[in-house]
UniProtKB/TrEMBL annotation:
The keyword Flavoprotein does not apply. One of its GO terms (biological process) is fatty acid metabolic process. It comes from Streptomyces mashuensis. Residues 16-321 form the AMP-dependent synthetase/ligase domain. This is ATP-dependent acyl-CoA ligase.
Length: 498
């Protein structure tokens, strides 16, 4: 895939479809060729507005066909699209434009004072309305400016590379055999760059593309019949829960009946969920990547191992340090660095081009990678020992009575605690079920080293990984919030309530 040829390819896709379903359930459909015509029209409007190559065009809006058209129009005009997530507030328009170096802003934010350089997604900018003194750069390899919250919850700005984007999409098309017979459904915000990778992939191959909001995704997946999906673990957990409650039909039928494969990789997924999908002959594949580097490892339909994130895509580009931390050094990383982070770039991007992932992992004899946890999530105990919470959680995955377990430090950090959600049919406050879980945990503890044992418990009726209070904007578990919740639950006395 390459951007120079992308427009010429999708303008010839007369039968490939682009569908948008909005929050009210209204459906808009056009061909990819018609999307090309709309993007060409938008590119002309950008030029009339005064947008020139090297200008930055901002967009903060819900997913729509117009979102796609503005993105593709920016590519056509040589502008750089800066995609803002929903949690980024738009205050006074003039100040926002200046603060972010924008020539033009496309937004559906309501209640803003009128400004000539601010236009609605379905609107038309006026002549010469672009900010006169907006900075212009030499884009070169810079394709887009995006934000990612990762597991920290703190927004980081990333400079996305054209070459890195082309490389990732090319490898994905090859590894998963994406063709014009495929149909892909996107339900996460397009401001998340992974979704735009999927868009470009579909336009390159002629695969159908469907946009649906999360609140409509379970209906859309039945009616639109995608062949592949990419989503976070909480989505697949919810699918499984709905299927079990429904009681009729197969899991494949619930997902439309045409699924070739599903991908997850934005956070750890429960082994029970993986096993349940494969038992129903619906391939759910784990993958691993970062916006900084691009995809690092993935399972495919031909080569997969449950519980791992797959084989390294570029084995020669990955180094595992003695402590297990992964470093990536490839010629075309997805991002060339951070912007507006106050020095955070020094921690991740080394001068020689190496990207420090902050993830710990191990390779098995067959080359499959298992992630052990994030460096910043490591728990330092009072004894001086350090543990990875995800690794500790893996020791307890075989306990049938536990739906979810989140390992955290206890308030005094002298030992490990955990927030446990009992598996159905246990109900909140079920003392008998909680007693069984304590017994099962103690049985596992006996086989572990003292520093690995979970000694204090707090019970939660709802899994934290599906509770918005404990999730980042990218639908990942925030371990600091989980630890704070545990500390509040046990109070100031170690072990109280445990």
């Amino acid at each position: 895939m390459n951007f120079e040829e992308l427009a010429d390819r999708y303008r010839r896709h007369d039968s490939a479809r682009v569908v948008h379903i909005d929050a009210a359930g209204r459906r808009r459909e056009l061909t990819q060729a018609e999307l090309h015509a709309l993007a060409t029209e938008r590119a002309g409007q950008l030029a009339v507005a005064g947008v020139r190559p090297g200008h930055v065009v901002g967009i903060r809006a819900a997913n729509s066909v117009d979102w796609l058209a503005w993105d593709l129009a920016a590519v056509a005009t040589g502008a750089v699209l800066k995609a803002f997530p929903d949690e980024m507030p738009v205050d006074e328009p003039g100040a926002f434009l200046a603060r972010h170096g924008l020539a033009l802003l496309i937004t559906d934010a309501e209640g803003l004072p009128a400004h000539p350089a601010v236009v609605a997604p379905d609107g038309t900018p006026g002549r010469d309305v672009a900010v006169v003194d907006a900075p212009r750069g030499e884009p070169g390899d810079l394709h887009s400016l995006v934000f990612s919250s990762g597991t920290s919850g703190r927004l980081k700005g990333l400079n996305v590379s054209r070459k890195g984007t082309e490389y990732v999409i090319g490898r994905f098309v090859e590894a998963f055999a994406i063709t014009s017979a495929d149909r892909h459904l996107i339900f996460l915000p397009l401001a998340n760059y992974q979704q735009r990778l999927s868009v470009y992939c579909c336009l390159w191959t002629g695969a159908d593309l469907v946009l649906a909001p999360y609140q409509r995704v379970f209906a859309a997946v039945k009616t639109e019949r995608p062949t592949f999906l990419i989503g976070p673990p909480v989505f697949y957990d919810t699918v499984l829960q709905l299927h079990r409650k429904g009681g009729t039909g197969t899991l494949a039928a619930m997902l439309g009946g045409d699924i070739r494969f599903l991908i997850t990789g934005m956070a750890p997924i429960r082994r029970e969920t993986l096993d349940a999908f494969w038992a129903e002959e619906v391939p759910l594949l784990e993958a691993y990547g970062m916006t900084e580097s691009g995809m690092i490892a993935w399972n495919t339909l031909d080569e997969h191992r449950l519980g791992s994130v797959g084989r390294l895509i570029d084995p020669d580009a990955v180094t595992l340090l003695p402590d297990g931390e992964l470093l990536v050094h490839r010629p075309a990383p997805l991002s060339s660095g951070y912007f507006d982070t106050g020095g955070a770039q020094d921690d991740t991007y080394r001068p020689d081009g190496t990207i420090v992932t902050g993830d710990y992992g191990e390779l098995d004899a067959d080359g499959y990678l298992t992630l052990l946890g994030r460096k910043k999530d490591v728990i330092a105990l009072g004894s001086g020992r350090k543990v990875h919470p995800a690794e500790i959680e893996s020791f307890f995955t075989g306990i049938a009575e536990i739906a979810e377990m989140v390992v955290v430090p206890t308030p005094q950090s002298s030992r490990l605690g955990a927030i446990v959600t009992p598996a159905p049919p246990a109900t909140p406050g079920d003392e008998a079920a909680e007693a069984v879980i304590r017994k099962r945990i103690e049985e596992v503890n006996q086989a572990l080293e003292p520093h690995q044992r979970v000694m204090s418990l707090v019970f939660s009726a709802q899994p934290l990984r599906s509770d918005p209070r404990f999730m980042t904007a990218n639908m990942k578990l925030s371990r600091p919030l989980a630890a704070a919740h545990f500390a509040q639950a046990v109070g100031s006395t170690e072990g109280a309530g445990a």
